[in-house]
UniProtKB/TrEMBL annotation:
Residues 28-259 form the Copper-binding protein MbnP-like domain. Residues 1-24 form the signal peptide. This is Metallo-mystery pair system four-Cys motif protein. The lineage of its organism: Bacteria, Pseudomonadati, Pseudomonadota, Betaproteobacteria, Burkholderiales. Pfam families: MbnP. It comes from the Bacteria. Transmembrane segments: none annotated. It comes from Cupriavidus basilensis.
Length: 295
C-alpha cells in the first residue's frame, strides 16, 4: 500500500506558480517501530523459550542489541530517500541508531537499564511505499576510538577493537545444551551460544589501529518494497535467525557460538540467515527481519 505525504507540497507548488508565495511543506516526522520476538512470542530478556534451532532447544536470552543505520523510505519511483535521524544524545547519532531489548536486570544484568525499540527522524514530503535500512555501523564510524565516541557508539560491550570495529548484533543466551557461563565478582564468562555479528578479516597493523579495509564487512541491506510505518512494525525474529542451527553444541577449538569468524563452523547456517554468504553457503534472503502488523 502506498501512503502519501505530498498534499502540502503539491498545494504549495500550485499556489507558488500562481504567485501565492507559500513556502514548501515542512519535513514529515517518521517513527519506525521495531518488535523483538521469538517466533510469535514477544521477546523479554531473561524469559525462557522452547523449540529453538534444529534440536528444539530451550533458550534463555541475556542480551539482545543491534545497530541500524542508513535508514530510508522508498518513494513511488523505487528510489531510497534518506531519513534524517533525530540526534537525541543517547540512542541515535548521525545516521546510526541502537536498538536495545535488554533491561540490565536478572540474567541481563551485564546490560544497561532502559529499552529502545524505535527509530525517529524526518523526511521530505512525498509519496512513499517501502523501507530500507542497513544492519551495521557505517565504515566511517565503525573503526573510530570508542572512548571518544558519543552515545550510542560508546558502549564497550558493543565494541571488539579498532581493527574489527563494533558488534553490529549482540545476542547472548543460555541453551539446553550450553549452560550460562560462570562468573566472578568482576567478570562474566561467555554464556551458552552467543551470536555476535560484525566485520571480520579487517587488515590493519594491529588490533588497536583502524583498518584500510575489511574483507568481510558483514553489513546487510534490508529492503521491504511494501511497508507503511503508520500501520506496520519491523519484526526482529530470533527464532527465525536460529532455525537451522544446532545451538546446543559448539565446534571444538572455536569461539563460543558464532562470532562471525570466516572459519567458525557454528556460523555456517547463521550467516545466510542474516543475508550473508558464508563458506559454501550462498547469502540468499535474510530472515532476521520482516514487516508485520502492529500489535
Amino acid at each position: 500500500m502506498k501512503y502519501a505525504w505530498a498534499s502540502g507540497a503539491l498545494l504549495a507548488a500550485a499556489l507558488s506558480g500562481c504567485g501565492g508565495g507559500i513556502p514548501a511543506a515542512p519535513n514529515r516526522p517518521v517513527t519506525l517501530q521495531f518488535d523483538a520476538r521469538v517466533g510469535e512470542e514477544p521477546f523479554e530478556c531473561g524469559r525462557s523459550y522452547d523449540g529453538i534451532g534444529t534440536t528444539a532447544s530451550r533458550i534463555t536470552p541475556s542480551d539482545f542489541r543491534l545497530y541500524i543505520s542508513e535508514v530510508a523510505l522508498i518513494d513511488a519511483a523505487g528510489q531510497a530517500v534518506n531519513l534524517t535521524l533525530g540526534q537525541d544524545g543517547r540512542w541515535q547519532y548521525r545516521d546510526v541508531a541502537l536498538l536495545d531489548f535488554e533491561n540490565g536486570t536478572g540474567p541481563c544484568r551485564n546490560g544497561n537499564p532502559g529499552l529502545h525499540d524505535r527509530i525517529e527522524g524526518h523526511i521530505p514530503p512525498g509519496v512513499y511505499r517501502g523501507l530500507q535500512f542497513t544492519l551495521g555501523v557505517p565504515p566511517a564510524l565503525n573503526h573510530a576510538d570508542p572512548t571518544l565516541a558519543p552515545s550510542p557508539l560508546n558502549l564497550t560491550a558493543m565494541f571488539w577493537s579498532w581493527q574489527a570495529g563494533y558488534k553490529f548484533v549482540k545476542i547472548d543466551m543460555a541453551t539446553s545444551g550450553q549452560a550460562q557461563g560462570g562468573s566472578t565478582p568482576t567478570h562474566q564468562r561467555a554464556a551458552g551460544f552467543p551470536v555476535h555479528l560484525g566485520s571480520s578479516e579487517c587488515v590493519s597493523p594491529s588490533a588497536t589501529a583502524a583498518p584500510a579495509a575489511c574483507h568481510r564487512p558483514n553489513r546487510v541491506t534490508v529492503r521491504f518494497d511494501t511497508f507503511d510505518p503508520d500501520t506496520q512494525h519491523v519484526i526482529i525474529d530470533l527464532a527465525a535467525l536460529l532455525r537451522d542451527t544446532n545451538i546446543d553444541i559448539n565446534t571444538p577449538g572455536s569461539a563460543p557460538g558464532c562470532m562471525a569468524g570466516p572459519d567458525d563452523a557454528d556460523c555456517r547456517r547463521l550467516m545466510p540467515a542474516f543475508g550473508l554468504a558464508f563458506q559454501d553457503q550462498a547469502a540468499g534472503g535474510q530472515r532476521f527481519f520482516r514487516p508485520g502488523k502492529a500489535r
